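Journal club prep — side note

Before the paper discussion, L.F. wants everyone to see what a predicted structure for a comparable chain looks like in token form. Sequence:
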Amino acid sequence: MNIHEIIGEIEQKAATGPVTIDFTECTYIDLSGNIELIDYLGETDTKITVVGDSLNLYSRLKQD
């Protein structure tokens, strides 16, 4: 799943109610995808709850 598919899925779900994004159990998203997702979340006025940090996996991989 690429970042555009993820954003599309968020937009579809947001049309019917609040959306929760759980980064504690997500698949790896590369840094550019993280930046694009963070930008999208900052620009949208949709009620989105974010659990965890979208950069957790990237940060953990960079430290290893």
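L.F.'s comment for the group: Residues 4 and 33 are 9 Å apart (CA to CA). Keep this in mind when we get to the figures.
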